[in-house]
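Thread: "does anyone have the structure for this chain?"

Original post by V.I.:
We have the sequence but no experimental structure in hand. Need at least a predicted one for the grant figures.
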Amino acid sequence: MTDAPTDHLLDEDAVDRLEDFLASEIFHGEAMRLDELQGFLCALLGGPESPPPEAWLPVALGEAPAFRDEAEAREFQELLMRFRDHLAAQLEAGEDPVLIVYDPEEGEHASGLTPWCDGYLLGTELSPVDWVEAAGEHAEDMVELLEDFYLLEGSLKEDAEASGGPWMSEAQEARLMDEAAARLAARVVEIHDFWRIKRQPAMPLRRESPKVGRNDPCPCGSGRKFKQCCGRPDRLH
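Reply from O.Q.:
Generated one for you, tokens below.
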């Protein structure tokens, strides 16, 4: 990882322009809001395997954007890729992304992170591989890392209520959701690092001592050749 700053990839004016694009009639109301898009892209960038653009662009923007001309389409594409590259650079550098949030609407958590988490979880579902299955022996760790997203998005409570199972008190729920909101950016980086490490090939085991040849003196000190002493088939261990 590098500590190089990432601010040069995206400035405030570019973010505002991208936000205006997403809210415009170009996308017929089908494009994600900027907060949802940020969560969505963080999942795509931080997961075990990223889907190709042709798989995620229609999900994020709708099927048939109506740009006025090619120049406008190029401008939007450049802004979108700068936004994506900025997030990628932050994650690779181990920086907690500055989460984009709007004022919460009715039914959302006070942090305003419900749509952000919804976008992130949608990104996990779009992955070519199942996140929990891909985690293998560390599946429980991955479930735990994702729990904050499901809590803030509302799925945990909905599932509990649908199954008739118990749910926590309002005070406990509020406290846990506040805690989840406070660490959400760090969770994004933790998940990115989880999959980065998971993708690295296993290091080969290193031999602590030089390999003994069949005709070399036996390392046990007997004075005999290795093949006639500890290297005999019946004595190999």
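V.I.: this helps a lot. DSSP finds ten helices and no strands in the chain.
O.Q.: and Residues 1-7, 203-209, 232-237 have pLDDT under 50 and may be disordered.
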